[in-house]
Amino acid sequence: MKILALAKHVPESTTNIKVKADGSGIETVGVKFVMNPFCEFAVEEALRIREKNAAAGIEVTVLTLGPAAAADVVRTAYAMGADQGVHLCDDAFTSIDEIAAARTIAAAIKSRGFDLIIAGKHAIDYDSGQVGPALAECLGWPHVGAVVAIEWAADMKSMTVRRRIEGAEEVVNIKLPCLLTCEKGLNEARYPSLPGLMKAKKKPIETLNLAAVGVAQADIASATKMGEFAPPPPRPPGRMLKGSPEEMAKELARILREEEKLI
Amino acid sequence: MESPNVHDFYDTRALLSDEERQVQDMVRRFVDEKVLPVIAHAFEEHRFPKELIPTIAEMGLLGCNLEGYDCPGLNNVSYGLICQELERGDSGIRSFVSVQGSLCMYPIHAYGTEEQKKKWLPQMHRGRVIGCFGLTEPDGGSDPGTMKTHAKKQGGDWVINGAKMWITNGTIADIAIVWASTDEGVRGFIIEKGMPGYTSRDILRKMSLRASVTSELFFENVRVPEASRLPKAAGLGGPLSCLTQARYGITWGAIGAAEACLDEALTFTKQRVLFGRPLSHTQTIQRRLADCVRRITAAKLMSLQLGRLKDAGKLHHSQVSLAKWNNVRMGLDIARDCRDILGAGGISVECCPIRHMLNLESVITYEGTETIHELVVGREITGHPAF
Ligand SMILES: Cc1cc2nc3c(=O)[nH]c(=O)nc-3n(C[C@H](O)[C@H](O)[C@H](O)COP(=O)(O)OP(=O)(O)OC[C@H]3O[C@@H](n4cnc5c(N)ncnc54)[C@H](O)[C@@H]3O)c2cc1C
Q: Are residues A158 and A252 in the same domain?
């Protein structure tokens, strides 16, 4: 079996995001980038499937689409234990939207014989959650999103997966080939290891540009465009109520009812 | 020109390789996610968080700067950064890793036979065999030359009698690297848990390094085969060379502890409003915080150059003494000052400075007390030992 895990290079979750003065994007200088935490679950799950079926010769490939620096994500995946790494990198990919990204990835992998693709539920940078499902569409594969548990059939050709929905869990049977996206709770991703890190340094990363992916720029034209980035408006200052506790309670109730219309 | 980063005033990260930075980030994350959430409670309970050992081992931190025998062979700067990040969590966690790697795996690697290396190092790297290092005795640690523990040859075996005191990891260790005097001078032995006559017990009621196991070891006619002796270690140079390795890591570790304290003090002084302004706007608080940054920055440059010297094979043990003395003193002073800056809250284990401060009281004593390191440097510059 061949498994592909998708991994995106995103700003670390504790980063203090600043919007560029001209509104064209976020400030990336001095920002630490890491593997999207939901993609870590994807890589981890792929590695666990390989480890649990050690005799089956399962191969785990990790793919990232992003700028030159995104190669770090592949190196992290190597340090966790991935076998192969592919980096789709070209100026033409710089500001493509999710659907175009899915088309690009589909073109890059379609002749590679993957049986299973695992991706994060969403990336913590833009939170759009579209690339996984869109990629499944491009390939004509079924997909299950936000998976929290996987139970394999004995023949390893199908599985029963659980996904969390509002107030319940949905149980889905699905056959390979298919695409899954991971929700928090599916697993706990391992830390990369030092020996892994040392080996990762020497391991080649297959870097593919537009021509190597084999798509025309027109095929990956984006239907949506980022208009402008703006910081969230500053929070209005809090209001202090004055008076005795009784007066303040009365005033608070009045504000909630009449001004905020919350009660 | 942009303002320097408070946490790295001289941008020492820029002096690191990509790989060194990756190693630091990886351990930093482990400490944030796994150590910090449990450590204050473990310290309070006087408990070493043993449950962290498998993750520490899987990450490859044990014996990480040794070559071969499944060890990753990282450079010494990376090893130092690992110590720094671990001790930002707690000196106890760093001590565990120092003892396993520098005091137990290192002597087997440097002085052991091929069989000993193959038998122990891969298992120790994986955390399946834990080691402890027995040099100090109840009658005094600073003068190990006068140790009373001795080993006598009987037939092909050695019979060991004596006791060791203040031994990190003692009761959880599967093997002890024990230094004993013999008719030919000091020799090192690998003593295995369960060998008849070898017992250990924990030292309780410590007010420092509470999240670390410290023990006494007893040897009563413990018979070990010649194959358990480290053949290439002859004289006190053997154990002292191990201490140089561990002390090197400690010079980095103290930086981590100091950084954690400064972080907490900085946040606090920005938020605490007294006499109508935040504490951080007052002159004396600024002077104290600036002093922390000054000393941490100097310590970082010191350890980094020490690491570069070590990686180039040009390190003299007295250079390690200078940094151990400087950096641990720096860490202890900063921890105490940050403790004070936090006011009454600073005496709670919920704030890290008091825990680091108490821990560093051990760190300034073990692996050569501050005085001993001053005297090592003194001997180096005058040519006269004055111990
Ligand atoms: C938590 C902890 C963990 C430890 N772990 C280990 C371990 O794993 N393995 C191990 O072997 N040991 C370990 N030690 C022991 C440690 O290395 C010794 O405590 C240390 O070497 C000092 O020895 P001592 O305590 O006997 O003090 P002493 O040697 O008795 O010193 C007492 C005081 O005298 C001073 N002094 C000594 N000589 C002179 C001199 N010539 N002139 C002036 N002043 C002098 C010292 O600086 C000190 O202040 C540990 C200690 C602690 C606290």
A: no
Q: What is the interface pTM, i.e. ipTM, of the complex? A: 0.83
Both tokens of residue A129?
């959650």
Does ligand 1 lie within 6 Å of residue B138's CB atom? no
* B29 contacts chain A (CB < 8 A): yes
CATH classification of the domain holding A89:
3.40.50.620
On whether both A34 and A62 belong to a single domain, the answer is: yes
Which residues of chain A have a CB within 8 Å of the CB of B64?
A: 194
Domains identified in chain A, total number:
2
Which of chain A's residues have a Cβ under 8 Å away from the Cβ of B73?
A: 198
- CB atoms B59 and A192 under 8 Å: yes
Instruction: Assess B19–A contact: CB distance below 8 Å, yes or no.
Output: yes
- Tens of pLDDT along chain A (263 residues)? 999 999 999 999 888 888 998 988 888 887 889 999 999 999 999 999 999 999 999 999 999 999 999 999 999 999 999 999 999 999 999 889 999 999 999 999 999 999 999 999 999 999 999 999 999 999 999 999 999 999 999 999 999 999 988 889 999 999 999 999 999 999 999 999 998 988 888 999 999 999 999 988 888 888 898 889 998 888 888 888 999 999 999 999 999 999 988 88
DSSP state of A231: P
- Cβ–Cβ gap B64/A194 under 8 Å: yes
Q: Do A256 and A191 share a structural domain? A: no
